[in-house]
Design brief:
about 190 residues, alpha+beta, 60s Ribosomal Protein L30, Chain: A, 8 helices, 4 strands, H/ACA ribonucleoprotein complex subunit 2, Ribosomal_eL8-like_CS
Length: about 190
């Protein structure tokens, strides 16, 4: 009985070895390399393709890569200076209290109903708004680990502030981004 168990165990091991020897199908990358063809994949295209597919249909005006980078950099500075309102609830509350600034909205929010009222609210209060491609990048710019759906970047701290070189530099950056965001706004009539 012991010998039959040993034979069965050996048979099982040999079957496993045979399965390992069966060649796996080649991936497109390896197939192209074997055929001698260079496989050219642009990293920017590969990264941008999934993001474009996930964007919500109302994400207009969408910041291009350069403007998106500037807006997120300004958001990071604003967060350090406590000149920011983060999340739908805080942003809506600030806009209703007549705060001004730049509204930055993530373009990959699901469900879309969470932020559909924000552009209308911003237009009614003459606040420029812009969509950025990723809520994760927007959250990272706000110095949090959580993805963020929207932010309101304030030109001045809500509770006063210091006048120093850093404040002047932020004011210049804010003015530049404000001008660029205002330029891409859809014209109403």
């Amino acid at each position: 009985m012991v010998k039959s168990a040993e034979k069965a165990e050996k048979a099982g091991k040999s079957a496993e070895k045979k399965l390992k020897k069966v060649k796996k199908e080649k991936t497109p990358k390896k197939a192209a390399e074997d055929a001698g063809e260079p496989l050219v994949v642009d990293a920017a295209e590969a990264a941008a393709a999934p993001k474009k597919a996930l964007l919500i249909p109302i994400a207009k005006p969408l910041a291009d890569e350069k403007l998106s980078k500037k807006v997120l950099k300004l958001a990071k500075k604003a967060t350090k200076r406590k000149q920011i309102k983060r999340g739908v609830k805080e942003v809506v509350k600030a806009i209703r209290k007549k705060f001004t600034g730049i509204c930055v909205i993530a373009g990959d929010i699901s469900p879309i109903d969470v932020i559909t009222h924000l552009p209308v609210l911003c237009e009614e209060n003459d606040i420029p708004y812009i969509y950025v491609p990723s809520k994760e990048e927007l959250g990272a710019a706000g110095l949090t680990k959580r993805p963020t759906s929207c932010m309101l970047l304030l030109p001045k701290p809500p509770k006063g502030g210091e006048d120093n070189d850093e404040a002047k530099e932020f004011a210049e950056s804010f003015a530049d981004v404000h001008r660029r965001v205002k330029a891409v706004q859809p014209s109403v009539f």
